[in-house]
Design a protein that fits this description.
This protein is mostly helical. About 45% of the residues lie in helices and about 5% in strands. It folds into two domains: about 70 residues; about 60 residues, no CATH class.
């Protein structure tokens, strides 16, 4: 059971924002609350991501900050996911991170650009097959 209806008896959710995409959450919509980070997630994100990915994304944003799609509408940003992965890999290689750190940091950047973990995994595979 991933989602439940929030309590709408008071206005405590008036300024509540989704912990993944930062959209305002009103009292009537379905939400999911993480039991580990306590982040509240909007219905769009519930539909978009599996529960495992939701927990992973919440943890990544807790550590590295930002939100899903933060860089998506950037004026100079017309990046494809391939470009984002390639550019980020080049930058991160200089930092000599281990493979897990590299993966997490890459996924974080990809999320900031509004790409999903599934898109990331699919493109990373293509990238590594080259
Ligand atoms: Zn959301």
């Amino acid at each position: 059971m991933i989602a439940y209806y929030g309590n709408n008896e008071n206005n405590s959710r008036r300024n509540l924002k989704c912990a993944i995409c930062r959209i305002n959450i009103d009292n009537k919509t379905k939400t999911y609350q993480s039991r580990t980070t306590f982040g509240v997630v909007c219905y769009n994100c519930i539909k978009k991501f599996s529960q495992d990915y939701i927990e992973l994304i919440l943890n990544i944003f807790l550590v590295y900050r930002g939100y899903f799609g933060q860089l998506k509408d950037h004026k100079d940003c017309k990046h494809s996911i391939e470009t984002v992965i390639k550019d980020t890999m080049t930058k991160l290689k200089q930092k000599k991170l281990n493979i897990d750190e590299l993966n997490t940091r890459l996924l974080h950047i990809v999320l900031l650009y509004g790409f999903t973990p599934n898109e990331y995994i699919k493109n990373l595979k293509l990238f590594l097959e080259e």
